[in-house]
Amino acid sequence: MLIALFLVGCASRPPLATVPSVDLKRYEGHWFEIAKYPNWFQRSCASDTSAQYTPLPDGTIQVLNRCKQADGTFREAKAIATVTPDSGNAKLKVRFGKSPIAGDYWIIGLDEKNYSWALVGDPWRQFLWILAREPRLKDATYESIVTLAESQGYSRARIERTIQNSQP
C-alpha cells in the first residue's frame, strides 16, 4: 500500500523544469553555496562551501567544489561536467573522479540578467543548491529563490542555509 501511494505521488508531480538556456561563458567562475538540501557527500562540510566552474578545451567543464571542515581544514572535490545535448546548456552530467556514474545537475532557476544567483537541482528532487556570486544574498532575493524551488516541488523545510565566513 505504501509503495502504491509513493508511486502515485511521484507520478502526479510534473517533471522538473529547467531554465530555457544558460550562457556557459557567463556561468563559469566562482559561486558560493548559500543553501542546500543536506546530502551525504557534503556531511563533513561545516562552512564556506563554494564551487569553481572552468571551461576546458574539449568542451567539458572542470568543477572544483571546496568547503571548510569542522577542524578548519579545507576539503576539495574535482569533477568534470558535460552538457546534455539539446538542453540549452541547462542540464549537465557531473562525474567525480573515475566514477562510472554521473549525477544530474539541472539549472532550474537563474538570474538571467546578471548571473548573480542560480538554483540547481536534479530530476528526482533529491538534491538542491542555491548558489550566488557573493557569500550572501539579500533576504528578499533568497526568499524568492526558495519560493521558486517550492514551485518546482522542493520542500522549504528541507532547505538548509550554508555558513559563509570567509572569501575565496
Fraction of residues in β-strands: 35-45%
Enumerate the strands of the largest sheet in spatial order, edge to edge or round the barrel.
1-2-3-4-5-6-7-8
Number of structural domains: 1
Please state the structural category: alpha+beta
Shape: globular
CATH homologous superfamily, by name?
Answer: Calycin beta-barrel core domain
Let me know the average pLDDT. 91
The major beta sheet can be summarized as: 8 strands, antiparallel, barrel
Helical content band: 10-25%
CATH fold descriptor:
Lipocalin
Task: Enumerate how many helices there are, as a single number.
Answer: 3
Low-pLDDT windows of residues: 1-9
Distance between the termini: 50 Å
Radius of gyration: 16 Å
| Number of E-type strands | 9
Summarize the structure.
With 168 residues, this protein is an alpha+beta fold. It is built from three helices and nine strands; from the N terminus they run ααββββββββαβ.
Any descriptors?
single chain, 168 residues, alpha+beta, Lipocalin, 8-stranded antiparallel barrel, 3 helices, 9 strands, 38% strand, disordered N terminus
What is the element layout, followed by pairings?
Layout lengths: L1 H11 L11 H4 L1 E8 L8 E11 L5 E9 L4 E10 L7 E6 L6 E8 L6 E5 L6 E5 L6 H13 L8 E2 L7
Antiparallel strand pairs: 1-2, 1-8, 1-9, 2-3, 3-4, 4-5, 5-6, 6-7, 7-8
Report on this structure.
This protein is an alpha+beta fold and 168 residues long. The protein has one domain (18-161): Lipocalin (Beta Barrel), CATH 2.40.128.20. The chain is 17% helix and 38% strand. The protein is built from three helices and nine strands, in the order ααββββββββαβ. The protein has helices at 2-12, 24-27, 139-151; strands spanning 29-36, 45-55, 61-69, 74-83, 91-96, 103-110, 117-121, 128-132, 160-161. The chain has an eight-stranded antiparallel beta barrel. Strand 7 (117-121) and strand 8 (128-132) form a beta hairpin. The longest helix has 13 residues, at 139-151. The N and C termini lie far apart (50 Å). The model is unreliable at 1-9 (pLDDT under 50).
